[in-house]
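FORM 7B: Structural annotation worksheet

SECTION A. Query
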Amino acid sequence: MEILTGVPASPGIATGRAVRWDGTESGRTDPATDLPDASQRVVADLTRRAEAATSTEGRSVLEALALFAEDPELLAAAGRLEQAGTAAPEAVRTAAAGYAEQLRGLGGYLAERAGDVVDVGERLAASLEGRAPAEIPQPGHPYVLVALDLAPADTALLDPSAVVGIVTEHGGPTSHTTILARSLGIPAVVACGGARDSADGHEVVVDGTAGEVVVDPTPDLVDERAARERDSAERRSRSTGPGRTADGVAVRLLANVGTLDDALTAAAADVEGVGLFRTEFLFLGRSDEPTLDEQADTYAEVLSAFGGRTVVVRTLDAGSDKPVPFLDLPAEENPALGVRGLRTASVRAEVLVRQLEALVLAAERTGTAPWVMAPMVATVDEARRFATLAREAGVGTVGVMVEVPSAALRAPHVLAEVDFASVGTNDLAQYALAADRQLGDLGELLDPWQPAVLDLVAATCAGGAATGRPVGVCGEAAADPRLAAVLVGLGVRSLSMAPVAVPAVRAALEAVDLPTCEKAATAARSAATAADARASVTELLR
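SECTION B. Predicted structure
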């Protein structure tokens, strides 16, 4: 028996025979005649795959990939390289890589799409070279898929009845692929070095909660993990209603949504509202700003769907890149550290003003009171300026996202200017550990269990306690049932995540009281490493 360790990505426990997949093409086909022909073929293939997707999230990913595959700017950039003498397949790969690098520089939602663009570039190149798209293995029995990494388009097509677990050597806990695995309910472990060679062909237990892969497990271990999973599933099925600890401390369980469809789907789920409504989908890729009425109509539809439940809206989080061309922002060497998030208002203040006006108009139409927060707030002055602007527009509850270490360290002063704060653990980890969240090789650094990240969350909560302002978490860290207990112990009182993750988090919190959560928080912050923090809390909660 051998135990491999990685980073927990999607909770749950599964047992099956490991099947290695290297993502190689499934055969040969007639090469596309040119870039337009390749684009048409890839769009048709992705559209077919979208129709066969096993989840709403997967379908959305594949539809977005199809849009990238026919993006005129991407194809034009590849065409220019081809005219300059680069072979068509290499031209489209290079153009896609350049486009992806720009998206990574923007951070946040846009950075999460960088891998999608690279994947599309490879699909276009494969079509030009006459290589058929790679197909997920179908061994004829349920199995654990083991790979170097998985593209979102491949993950979106997984059938949970066939692929019972996922193990990858690359990837991080906040990647698009990880989020899809959670939405499908497939246990997953990422950043698990050597998994392909060690696990291929062997019986394995994938513990997506503990971040372990057990190769050739003993019968007793299989029985023990299976019993643990059955107990967890039973607790999840019994758990409904508002979030709370065993001793009655309220912890609001909210949904992260990124599109109108996401919001309407989440509204039907057993959640207490929305903790993060990303509004970028209205703005991305447009050459003109969405009108006041267009924005107000969309916001009103989301607010109406949730009725009296809380809806926390994040204002436009974009940067200087072509996905938001109408902003007309200057080119930058490092956009992730440049004009992005709230800072775009320093260049185009009227865009933020109109968005706030649209939100207030939507609230008036629906008789609701959304909470509105600004992204990438770094200083007290920025918090004060946003609060003034929002309140002048008529917003009743104004907040900030804490994604930059400076905001966490100065939390008492920042929170004194607003009504609430929401910690974005994905970007907070990226900036605190100086690790690009899109680089799979850095998944260990981006682990939200990193004690330094937890220290920053604790500092934010201390600022909330000093000012009487509530603090929530809306990063993917909130979806980890054990980490949720740690966050509550630090002082967090709302957790926002993908709706599919809510039952497990709700059940986990119902099993612990606040003193236990506080002990877990102390144990995690006292640890030397993320792995040590996870292990010590696991032992404490067990």
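SECTION C. Observations
The first helix runs from residue 35 to 52. The first strand starts at residue 2 and ends at 5.

SECTION D. Sign-off
Analyst initials: ____
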